[in-house]
Each structure stands twice: as C-alpha cells, then as structure tokens.
Amino acid sequence: MTNMVESLNNMLVNARDFPYVALLDVIQEKMSKWWNDRRIIAMAITAPLTPSWESEFRPRFAQSNGKHILQLNPVTYHVKGSELEGVVDIFNKTCTCKEFDIDKLLCVHAIAAVHHAQVSVYSLVSPYYTKEYYVLAYSETIYPVGSQSQWDVPNEVAIRVVWP
C-alpha cells in the first residue's frame, strides 16, 4: 500500500460510517487543506527547481567536479572520470548513460558538459521539475460542494432514478 493510500485510510477512519455526502465532504475538506498547504509551500520556494529535485541535484554537482571533458563538436561532449563514461549532446538533451534522456534531469555527465560549455544547467532541465510548474500544479482551488439545499439540480437530472 502506498503512503497516499495509507494517509487517506487514516484520514477516513472516523468517517467511514458517515453517509456518502458527509464522507465526500470530509474528503473534500482534507483535500482542500492539503492542496492549499502545498500551494503555500510551492509559492515560498526560492530555488529554480522543486525542493526534492534541488536536493537530488546537489550530489550530482559534486560528482561532476574533476571530470575530463572533451568537446567533440559545438554541442557534444565526451565526459570521462567515473566508472561510466558519457557522451552528452546538449542540443538534444541526451547522454549515453540514458539518465538525462529518461529523467529529463541532468546526469553527472551532462552537468560537467554544460558547466564546461558555460550553459546554465537549469536551462536544460525539464520544466516539470521547476518551481513554476510546481506552483501551477497547485494553482487551482478545491471548493466545497455546499449544502444539498443550495444545489441547483436541473429537473431532467432530479427526476432520474439511480439504483445503488
């Protein structure tokens, strides 16, 4: 079971016996709180990447130091100095180790190559890892449904019989 499922199960332990509408209200309220908490965290980030990816990047920067770099052409570099060598293509955002290709986050070889090329590592990271996308992910608001007495239900929907 994942952490998210366990969190939802723990959250709903006291609400499991509620009527469906009340149970959905509990879920909506908790999701709204979680969403808003994450929005506040995202808005407070000062680094270019999300916190988890910034912390993932730090060791890679350290490992990229001291690599031997041979420029093969204006955008391709051969990076040596570790157990695994890499040929990095900055333009196509690829490396023969495949980490840059798959994760879209710079591998050790790519960091060494772009540093040598005097290009910002952040300019080559997938936008999905950026603060901007993180903020956008939580930009919408989860609103409560409201009391059933306030619902505006079209007549053609209200007259339908739905069996459990």
Oligomer status: single chain
Following the backbone from N to C, one meets helices and strands in this order, namely HHHEEEEHHHH
Radius of gyration over C-alpha positions, nearest whole angstrom:
24 Å
Shape: elongated
Low-confidence stretches: none
Q: How confident is the prediction overall: mean pLDDT? A: 89
Strands ordered across the widest β-sheet: 1-2-3-4
**Separate helix tally:** 7
Can you summarize the main beta sheet?
4 strands, antiparallel
What portion of residues is helical?
40-55%
Structural category: alpha+beta
Structure summary, number of beta strands: 4
- Straight-line distance between termini: 28 Å
Strand proportion, as a percent range, falls in: 5-15%
Short structural summary:
This protein is α+β, with helices and mostly antiparallel strands and 164 residues long. Helix content is 45%, strand content 10%. The chain has a four-stranded antiparallel sheet.
